[in-house]
Amino acid sequence: MIKILLDAMGGDNAPNATLQGAADAMREFGDGMTIALLGDEARLRSAAQELGIDLTPFELIPCTEEITMHDDPVKAVRHKKDSGLVKGLTMLKNGEADAFVSAGSTGALHVGASLIVRTIKGVKRPALATCMPGKKQPYLLLDCGANAECRAEMLNAFGTMGSVYMQSVMGRPDPAVALVNNGAEETKGTPLYREAHGLLRANPSIRFVGNIEPRDIMAGEVDVVVCDGFVGNVVLKLTEGVATTLLEMLKDIFLKNLITKLCFLGVHSGLRDLKHRMDSEEIGGAPLLGTARPVIKAHGSSKAKGIKNAIRQAKLCVQNDLCGTMQTALARLGQQKEGV
What we know:
- The protein is α/β, with parallel strands linked by helices.
- It has two domains: 1-126 and 290-325, Isopropylmalate Dehydrogenase (3-Layer(aba) Sandwich); 127-280, 3-Layer(aba) Sandwich (Isopropylmalate Dehydrogenase).
- It is built from twelve helices and eleven strands.
- It has helices spanning 16-29, 41-51, 73-79, 84-93, 106-117, 152-168, 191-202, 214-217, 229-254, 258-277, 304-319, 322-331; strands at residues 2-7, 33-39, 59-62, 99-102, 127-132, 139-142, 176-180, 207-212, 224-226, 285-289, 295-298.
- It has an eleven-stranded mixed sheet, with helices on both faces.
- Strand 1 (2-7), helix 1 and strand 2 (33-39) form a beta-alpha-beta unit.
- The model is unreliable at 335-339 (pLDDT under 50).
């Protein structure tokens, strides 16, 4: 039986969204899985009653503290020991569960996962990875915010971890890995990115296809897109902003007059599919790749669907032994001596 820990008080819409998401997850793919809810028991029971959710299938783990988005990540992890985030990560480390999901503070989750759960041998800093919409197919972007500054060895390891994730969890055979750069030529970019290009090209664990320019990323021709956390976060937020803006502009065009409204009827299903493909909640969670046990970060603004799909990601990571498979792949790089 797979046990998933959920930080029920984490996120902008907690606890209602986390409770509803957990309930939906149990209903849709709960076979062989249990979910433990960590948080303020009184608030959880009150919200469950309001939503009409039966808490009987869930384990409730009371917590007296919360980590907010405004807390300093390091201080919060060190001092708020009875928060759902710290308590859950500690339980995960001790083998009391198989995976942890939170929509709370990204910084606190990254610090907590690194200090408490620890990382796979050969990895010093886990990378935040998320599946992004592409024209041909979704692609995995990493790092998208956990490590603003990276060394070339870290980018090389990100390529390996991303490749393993796409094979093990997303079912992509022989995934193509590319490095974000300001040109396709291997001589492009800063010294860091030129060095990373050489390491990725020589990496026997991946199929590296070279540099990729930002304008080509969303074509979805590659499976894994590697960059440092600063660049990745810019790509992530720019993509989200462009998608939202374009959909709003299209809506304005079709609502302009009677003729455009009639035209809308002919493309309604296509636009609905496009909106579905651009919806970040369809993926739900971004795994922290490189942790010793599965840790999934849901978007801070996640609604019930996002939480549900983050739990699905966690279950898939456990079922496919993501961490074990990643350790084997990283071992082939021979990076254990200095770490990533």
